[in-house]
Amino acid sequence: HYNTERNSFPQFWHYEFGIDNPQAILNMLLERGFIRIATAKESVEKLKVPELKEILSEHGIKAAGKKVDLVALVRENVSEEDLGTKIPFRRYALTDLGEQEVKENEYVIEGPRIEKMLGYTNLESEKGFTFFQNFLKMNGILDELEQLGIQEGDTVRMYGLSFDYYK
Question: Is the pTM here over 0.70, yes or no?
Answer without folding.
Answer: no
